[in-house]
Please model this.
Amino acid sequence: MITNQYLNDFYNNYDEDSRLALKHGSVEFLTTMHYIKKYINPGDRVLEIGAATGRYSHALARLGYDVDAVELVDRNIEIFRQNTLPDEKITITQGNAMDLSAFSDNQYNITLLLGPLYHLYSKEDKQQALREAIRVTKQGGVIFAAYVISDGCLLDEGFKRGNISVAGYIEKGLLDPDTFAAKSQPKDLFELVRKENIDDLMSVFPVSRLHYAATDGCALLMRESVDAMDDASFELYLKYHLATCEREDLLGITSHAIDIFRK
Ligand SMILES: C[S@@+](CC[C@H](N)C(=O)[O-])C[C@H]1O[C@@H](n2cnc3c(N)ncnc32)[C@H](O)[C@@H]1O
Model:
């Protein structure tokens, strides 16, 4: 089942559950949940593809929704099961976002594809995962697709924190020296894109976009300041973020983006 050993090694050694525990990390989760709550209705069925340890799946199951989850990596599935409470209406299946043949057409009101597109490196593979997410969604259902955005990551992980060597990436051919557009392969783990790439991917699907939002905006870039906020300041920051995260002039400087569209 595992097709990418780099991915397996990464998630087997990564504390996915703690990723969003700090204030700066919670902005992505709170923003995505804000939009899910806008479209989910009582009795809806949810599919989460690439559910990892199940933060979204469990949060939605605890709100009373019927949730099916698909995940590739064994260790994440094991933790997902440990995190499941007895009264949750939830299932987890090992599977690949590019082949959801275990799931029939037109089943889900809400489909979450929050993660697999970070780890698919060609346009064809990304479109295959999107096609599968659309296929299993009911007509009129809403799909949430998340991406890692190159400019936010370059500014934060590269120029600010030095975890990525920008010069080194250019030398290795992972960044275009003129446009700074990113290119990745499985060994690089994360596929970094820009909105223009997402628009191009989506151009072949007969769906209507409801929202395109900068999921965490500048929260990672200014993580020290966000983490130092008291609860009242953080609440105000979040209010500001939600009020501005779809503004066209702010969309590119974000570590993650969410594309929300109706089938
Ligand atoms: C960054 S995590 C996101 C988890 C969760 N959806 C969230 O947003 O918190 C990405 C998850 O997608 C899984 N994944 C990556 N590629 C996948 C694929 N092709 N099919 C299914 N799951 C995949 C990874 O194993 C990982 O657990």
Q: What stands out?
A: The pocket of S-adenosylmethionine is lined by residues 7, 11, 49-52, 55-56, 70-73, 76, 96-98, 114-116, 118-119 (CB under 6 Å). The chain has a mean pLDDT of 94. The domain at 5-148+187-262 is CATH 3.40.50.150 (Rossmann fold).
